[in-house]
Amino acid sequence: MNKILRNRDFLKNRKGKILIEGVTASSLAKKFGTPLYVYSESRIRANAQRIKNALEKFIPHSKLFYAIKANNNLSVLSILRQEALGADAAGPYEIELAKKAGFSKSKILYSGVFHSDEELKFGLKSGVAINVDSLSAAKRLLHFGKPPLFSMRVNPGIAGGKIKGLVFAGADAKFGESLANATKAFRLAKQRGIKKFGLHMMTGSCVLDDKYFGAATTKLLEFAGKIRKAVGIQFEFIDIGGGLGIPYRAKEKILDVAKAIRVTAKIFRDGVSKFQLGNPQLMLEPGRYIVGDAGVLLTRVGTVKQAQKIFIGVDAGMQTLLRPMLYDAWHEILVDGKLNSRASQKVSVVGPICENTDQLARDRLLPKITEKDLLAILDAGAYGFGMGSNYNTRARPAEVLAKGKSAELIRGREGISEIIGKQKIPQRLKK
Ligand code: LLP
């Protein structure tokens, strides 16, 4: 158990019970109900500061943006705005969210993929920097208007992340452009009179190898060098994406962020001078690393079924946290009140959805669980709430922000009106 808590200082074991910041998990579940996402404000800040400090130390000419898609709660965004990060938006509504959370236009990058015309027009109108990921989108964007800065995502052919679904570059990836098409796009942008440029990649998510980021940066700088030579432009920033991983399994190693940034910074500086790239900023846009381990999903056990296996039925499922079902992802589970108990039973923790994939953990060794127990599913802060759904007409859960001894509701639980409110029944079906 101590191993699970080793890198999560906002979680404490108080006589077997779970303490999140200074609040007991049981009191949160009682007050706000379950399933419930709980985020630690201090952990979010500490995670962001760890990256910021390393950037300041090893490469001050840099900028740090937060990938909103990891967790789009306005309170989370506001914390990161206070921490002076920028925001990376995946779509028009994420631009809106960033603005609502107080990010200025100059601190928002719109990095969608396979943009529609409407999205490009929206991006232009909102005045934020736009990062396109195809020659097609580049042509359409430049036809619709003249963005203050033109940035493009490339596929540098190197890919990180050990989960198959989290590889975003290389032969099978839909993201980014080839060098040839990117060169064409930058040439068009230059002809259009654009003076400021950015180059972007996002090659994989949840990378725990601190050497990977430098290796990928090398590739991107090679691309930058070739584009500079062919088109005659310099880049304001070179964005190496997100991808900083967290150890979901207690036995996994922790990414040494300072080391990853130190190594990458050196490679960056050397490459910038080798390829005569002027003085671009190194840009980083992580999501998971900042919010992932700062979130806990509390869920109540309703049923213990002793069938061919032991099934622990809880009120969270694939509608609440999809990662285990989609990627076979592992999330550590704590049983409230039993942190000091021996893991003595292999059980499958399953949700209430009518799918057999709706299993949060399969054959997991845990302390003996009884009905009404409260479970905490760890590292649920990134890609948790955001990937939830209303499948089986289930409500999305509430979200709470814990800070010291207090905890506030930052998103209420959905009710039936939010789930079905947009539906309409044609008159003829009402008879
Ligand atoms: N920038 C761009 C353009 C991205 O597409 C992403 C994530 C990020 C930054 C942030 O990546 P991160 O630092 O979080 O690795 N649903 C998956 C993760 C998908 C990530 C998609 N893009 C999961 O649950 O693991």
Walkthrough of the structure:
- With 431 residues, the chain is of the alpha/beta class.
- The chain folds into 2 domains: 2-40 and 292-414, Lyase, Ornithine Decarboxylase, Chain A, domain 1; 41-291, TIM Barrel (Alpha-Beta Barrel).
- It has 13 helices and 20 strands.
- It has helices spanning 2-5, 25-32, 41-58, 74-82, 92-100, 117-126, 135-144, 179-191, 212-231, 257-274, 288-291, 323-327, 416-420; strands spanning 11-14, 17-20, 23-24, 36-40, 62-67, 86-89, 108-110, 129-132, 150-153, 197-200, 237-239, 281-284, 295-306, 310-314, 333-335, 345-350, 359-366, 374-377, 398-403, 406-411.
- The strands form 3 sheets. Strands 4, 13, 14, 15, 16, 17, 18, 19 and 20 form a 9-stranded mixed beta sheet that branches.
- A hairpin with a 2-residue loop joins strand 19 (398-403) and strand 20.
- Helix 3 runs parallel beside helix 10 (257-274).
- The longest helix has 20 residues, at 212-231.
- The chain is globular, with a radius of gyration of 23 Å.
- The mean pLDDT is 96.
- Residues 67, 69-70, 88, 111, 166, 202, 205-206, 241-244, 285-289, 323, 382-383 line the site of ligand LLP.
